[in-house]
Amino acid sequence: MNKLGKRLRIADIKGGPEEGLVRHWVRTASDAESYDQVNAVRDILFLRLFLAVLSKRPARYSALDKAATVGVENGLISTGASVWIEGTIGSSQGSKQKIELNVQKLVVIPNSNEGGESPVNAIPTTEAGSVDWSQDFFGKRAYLTVSGQLNDETYAALSDMIEPELAFADLDDDMACATAYLQYVVKYVLENCKEYMDFFNTWIEKWIINRLSDVVEKNSVQMTYTDAVELLLKAKKKFDFPVKWGCDLQSEHERYITEEAFGGCPVIIRDYPKDIKAFYMRQNDDGKTIAAMDMLVPRVGELIGGSQRERLEYLEELPHAGFGLGFERLVQFATGIDNIRDAVPFPRTPGSAEF
């Protein structure tokens, strides 16, 4: 599995020369020509330190230069546009930035201008000026949530989630980030909460320190949903819930995989059937599965669930991903507590929604 790549801040780049890749959003764009130099330049300014230079040589006027030049002139490359730029990093000749990137490859996603095009004024209203819900798609007041668990969580009062979203990231980056996040948290707990961990190790779960140390030191196992189902079908154990391809894995299945099949090692299952996952998850090319993943850990089962987000034609080159981690499940995993209700950081009872 990929490891989480180290990304440099623009301020930390020393000015090369070296090859570089920048994935960012345009802050400002300008069209400037210099007659004191051989090359006219088209520039895109990043933050206050970074200049991406698209050079135009009369003898070598490439398709890239033409596209980039037209892009700046007609507003395609404008404030807010997402760009993916490869090139050579070097010291800048400009006075307002320290370094510049001489562009060799450029991918541009225009600014969606969602705010300017939002059809707020097109919402049907009654004579009194309120929203006319009878003309809505559902014919009545309705709300959209990407969480199929919301209604159940409302009654269970268990809904704390840590939910990062990653720009310019695919499923491999998502899994690498989730793994690195869990390892960081567990390592921090072991190093900075030793008295508490000794207490848990003595009174709550024997060998919990060894179990958590394995999470930090060992890589997660990665397997597809199809391989996980085959593993469960071959298991010499009777499950309460039958296993077949297309079923949603239950806690007993998840715990068997991570606790027994792989001896307590975290396991990431990927490429789930599209029919059992959320609509916003990216469909794989096979048309049957999606680019989704769940991280399974001992005693808990699923700890993290995430995916690469659904692709649109104009977002194909700039993927994004994210995941959700149940905070109470993380506390339960790190402390060895059996009942997740004992891991809730503050009491939640009827009438206490203000918390």
TrEMBL record:
Superkingdom of origin organism: Eukaryota
Annotated Aminoacyl-tRNA synthetase class II (D/K/N) domain residues: 161-311, 318-349
InterPro entries with a match to the protein in the record: Aa-tRNA-synt_II (IPR004364), aa-tRNA-synth_II/BPL/LPL (IPR045864)
GO MF terms held by the record: asparagine-tRNA ligase activity; ATP binding
GO cellular component assignments: mitochondrion
Pfam families, per the entry: tRNA-synt_2
GO biological process: asparaginyl-tRNA aminoacylation
Cited Gene3D superfamilies: Bira Bifunctional Protein, Domain 2 (3.30.930.10)
Keywords: Aminoacyl-tRNA synthetase, ATP-binding, Ligase, Nucleotide-binding, Protein biosynthesis
Protein name: Aminoacyl-tRNA synthetase class II (D/K/N) domain-containing protein
Source organism: Anisodus tanguticus
